[in-house]
């Protein structure tokens, strides 16, 4: 019996295009000025130290740190320090009304229905926990954060590593078999299934995969059936 649902964001609740064409360029365009202006801020300084720690054989000055961050953005690298810095930039974007987040039309009604049915809802995304909260706080349907019981990012571990899912199950206090993980990435679903979680593969566009071991659906409505 499923008692908790853990959902990915990009490609699952939210279009790839919102992340790749709105969020990532917004942060990329502002990263250099932001680091220059806020390098000494207590929220930012430890993140810049983390960037240096990720590249121990290459001592970086401020310019080098900025270059490294931009290279990670271009490579879509899931580095926690980068993700936290992006989150800080997106916070300003949401607050200034530069954008609201995108959710597929089936997402809000199903999150609400699952929450009302007593299921616990969690997010596991490469975006920082703060970025996840912001995204669900600024949806076209309003603030959906009251529906969620917790958020996990790459500080819990890689989304492709079974240990991350084991940790999440321990933290939220359910047996893996009681947890349903939703994602658009097969390797993430494989990792969750390895520890015993139930899995559903969201294939929003394109072909279904006839040989995959995960249940495949087009949208959240198909899960209610
Ligand atoms: C929290 S929205 C930004 C998503 C993001 O930064 C990202 O890298 C996408 O990761 P996901 O694990 O949700 O596919
Ligand atoms: Mg995804």
Description:
With 225 residues, this protein is an alpha/beta fold. The chain folds into two domains: 4-15 and 102-224, HAD superfamily/HAD-like (Rossmann fold, 3-Layer(aba) Sandwich), CATH 3.40.50.1000; 18-95, Transcription Termination Factor Rho, Rna-binding Domain, Chain A, Domain 1 (Orthogonal Bundle), CATH 1.10.720.60. 48% of the residues lie in helices and 11% in strands. Strands 3-2-1-4-5-6 form a six-stranded parallel β-sheet, with helices on both faces. 33% of the residues are buried. The model has no long low-confidence stretch (mean pLDDT 97). Residues 8-11, 19, 23, 78, 83, 125-127, 131-132, 135, 159 line the site of ligand L4RZE5RM. The site of magnesium ion (MG) has 7 residues, from loops.
Secondary structure elements and pairings:
Layout (H helix, E strand, L loop, with lengths): L3 E4 L8 H23 L6 H10 L7 H13 L5 H16 L9 H12 L3 E5 L4 H9 L12 E3 L9 H11 L6 E5 L2 H9 L3 E5 L12 E3 L3 H4 L1
Parallel strand pairs: 1-2, 1-4, 2-3, 4-5, 5-6
The chain binds ligand L4RZE5RM and magnesium ion (MG).
Ligand L4RZE5RM binds next to α1 and α6.
